[in-house]
Amino acid sequence: MLKNIFLVSGLVLCSIVSGQETKKENESIKTKMDVFASKTGSITKFIDTKLPYLKVSFGSAETRIRKISNGAASAYFYQISKEGKYSTTTASIEYMDLIEVLKALKALQNEVNNDILANPDYLENKFITVDGFQVGYYIDKGTVHWYVRLEKYGSDVTLFIDKYETIETAFSEAKNKIDSLKGTK
Fold first, then answer.
1. 102-116 pLDDT per residue, tens
2. pLDDT at 60 > cutoff 90
3. By the 8 A CB rule, do 180 and 167 touch?
4. β-pairing, 44-56 with 122-128?
5. How open is the CA angle 84-86-92, to the nearest 5 degrees?
6. d(CA 169, CA 179)
7. Quick count: other Cβ atoms within 10 Å of Cβ 9?
8. Residue 120: helix, strand or coil by DSSP?
9. What angle do CA 88, 101, 97 make, to 5 degrees?
10. Could you give the angle at the alpha carbon of 67 between the alpha carbons of 65 and 69, nearest 5°?
11. Nearest to 125, CA basis, from 104, 156, 102, 100
């Protein structure tokens, strides 16, 4: 009987410690937008500016610029939303990350022809932001497939895009729109 009590007590203690560790892991995964928009003790304002839909292989995705003002500070995010069967997935790419994505896109474009010439059975080349947004391509049997992955985790979060130019144009237009909203060039 005493063994059973110790066994049950041990199991309860392990599950409590494990549950706390899981909670800490989940709490530490916050995007730049989450951090900026969740400041307490001040008024937070969201202003959206719609952009043209992003043409993807199987439909389209909604895009917009979201300005978040929190007190005297403001931040701009390029958002891409994909409506799924059960929910909508949205990537929020902070302005400085957007600039890095544009640089990465040019670097990827410079590599794609050499990757095709290597004639791999399969090759994937991508760039990932700290928030988990991905842009890249994969080559399968000599054919290039460009994609963006909206979130680090989950299913049905990838948009397949036929041409590099579609991605580059959408991201450049987003950067230009943020620059005009900020009053900078």
1. 999 999 999 999 999
2. no
3. no
4. unpaired
5. 50
6. 15
7. 10
8. coil
9. 75
10. 175
11. 104
DSSP-derived letter for residue 72 is T
CA 19 – CA 64 distance, rounded (Å):
37
For the chain, strand residue ranges (E) read 44-56, 59-70, 73-83, 88-94, 122-128, 134-140, 143-149, 158-161
Query: If you search the block for the tokens 């399969």, which residue do you land on?
Result: 122
**Residue labelled with tokens 């549950």:** 19
More confident residue, 83 or 110: 110
Dihedral angle, C-alpha 177, 178, 183, 185, nearest 10 °: -80
CA–CA distance, 137 with 8 (Å, rounded to integer): 51
C-alpha dist (Å) from residue 81 to 62, 137, 150: 5, 20, 8
Average pLDDT, the chain: 83
**pLDDT tens digits for range 14-42:** 454 444 444 444 445 566 665 655 666 67
Q: Report yes or no: 98 and 80 within 8 Å, Cβ to Cβ.
A: no
